[in-house]
Design goal:
The protein is α/β, with parallel strands linked by helices and 454 residues long. The chain contains six helices and 30 strands. It has helices at 2-25, 52-65, 147-154, 161-173, 270-275, 448-452, and strands spanning 35-37, 46-50, 68-72, 75-79, 83-84, 89-93, 97-101, 112-116, 119-123, 128-131, 134-139, 143-145, 193-196, 199-204, 207-209, 216-219, 222-227, 230-233, 241-244, 247-252, 255-258, 263-266, 280-286, 289-298, 306-327, 335-356, 371-393, 400-410, 413-420, 422-432. Strand 8 and strand 9 form a beta hairpin. The chain is globular and about 90 Å long.
Amino acid sequence: MLLSVWVSSMYAIDRIALRDSILKAVNGAQIPQRKISISQFGAKGDSATNCYRAFVKAMRYAQKNGPVRIVIPEGVWLVGGPIHLVSGVTLEISKNAKLMFTGQPKNYLPAVSTSWEGTLLWNYSPFIYGYGLHDVAIVGQGVIDGGTAAETFSEWSKCQDKDQNSSREWNHRGEPLEQRRMGAGHFLRPQLIQLYRCERVTLSSVYINRSPFWCIHILQCKNVRLRGLRCKARLTNNDGIDIESSQGVLIEDIRFDNGDDNVAIKSGRDNDGWTMVGPSRDILIRLCRFKGLHGVVIGSEMSGGVENVIIENCTYAGYVKRGIFVKTNPDRGGYVRNLWVNNVRFGEVLDLFYVTSMYAGQGIGNNHFSTIENIHVDSLSARNVTGNALVLQGTPQRHIRNVSFSHIDVKQAERGVSFEFTEPVLVSDCFIGLKVKAPSVASESDRIFEKNDQ
C-alpha cells in the first residue's frame, strides 16, 4: 500500500507540472485589433450570393496589409469553394452569422498537400485550409456549416475503398509525396478545417455543423488553443477534433455531439509515421463535455508516437460508446506514453477505459509492436458500463507497462476488469459495482451443514 501511495503521489506531481507548463507555453495566435468587413470585398450575407471570390480578395488583402481581422457580419454567407487562410489573419464570425459551404467537388480543386487517415498525399482542399502559416485564428459566436458541399462529399464514403487502399500502398512502399495524387476522379473526402504546419493557432467559440470528413484537423502544428467550440456533426466519420503530429495543444471547454470520435490524437500511419512526421505531445484536454462515438481516442494512426497527454475535469453530454480508448496493433509501431486521466465522468458507455495493442485484429503476423507505458488514471467514473469497465490488452511480445488506477467508481458493469500482458498494474480505491460493506459474522442463517449435505 505504501508503494501504491508513493507512486500515485509522484505521478500526481508530474501531471501538475506538465499541465502548468502546457498552460504557460500555449498562448495561440496573436489576434489583430484592426478589423475589416468581408462586405468590403463584395460579399453579401443574403443566403444567395456566392462569396468565394470575395474571400479570395480578402486573403490577398490580408497577405499584403495584415495582420488583420476579417469580420463576417450577421447573415448567411454562401461560399462555393475553399477559403485558404494567410498568416496574421483572423476570421471573426459574428453572432447570428453563418458561413455555409456549397458547390460541387470540382470547386475544391486544385488538390492541395494534405493527409488522409495518417498518409500524406494530395487531395481535394479542406473547406478552410492553411499551410505553413503563423498567427491564424477563427473566432466569434457564429456558425461554420459544411452545408450541401459537406453532404455531397459525405456520400463518397461508399466509394472510397479503392483510393483508401491506394493511399496505404503508397505509404507502405514509400512513394514520393509528389506522386501521391488524388483529387479529380478519386473519392477521398476533405476535412472541414485543416491547419497544416502552422504555428500559433487559435480556434475559439464558433459552432461547427456538418463536415465532409473530420471537422477540425490540426496537422504538424505547434502552439494551438482550441477553446469554447461547439461541435454538432453527424455525417460519416465526423470526428470533432483530430490532433496529428502536433506539439503544445490546449483543448478546453468544448461541447461535442459527433458521429465519430470527439477528440482523436494521432501521429501518422505506418511508414509515414516512422519516417515523415513527428510525435504528438504536450496536449491538455480539460473541461469538455463528450457525446458521440468515443470521448478521447489515441490512435490507431500513432506510428510517430504520442506522449504527455492529460485529460482532466471532463464530463459527458450524452452517450459515448467508449470513454477513453487507446488503440494500436502490430502494424503501427510507435509508442503511447505518459497519459494521465484525472477527474473524468461518464454516464452510460459500452467500455469505460480500453487500451489495446490488438485493434481490429489487424497486423497479427507483423512485428511492429507498439510501446505503451506510464498510464495513470485517477477519479474516473461511470453510471452504467454495458460492456467492460477497465481493459488492458498488450501482446506477448510487448507488454503494457506501468499502469495505475485509483478512485475508480463504476456503479454497474457487465464485466469489470480484463488485464492481459500488462505489468505492473497498481490499483487502489476502485469500486466496480456496489461498494462492499463489512462482512457478516457467523450465524445460524448461514446453514453450512444443510448446504454441504445437498
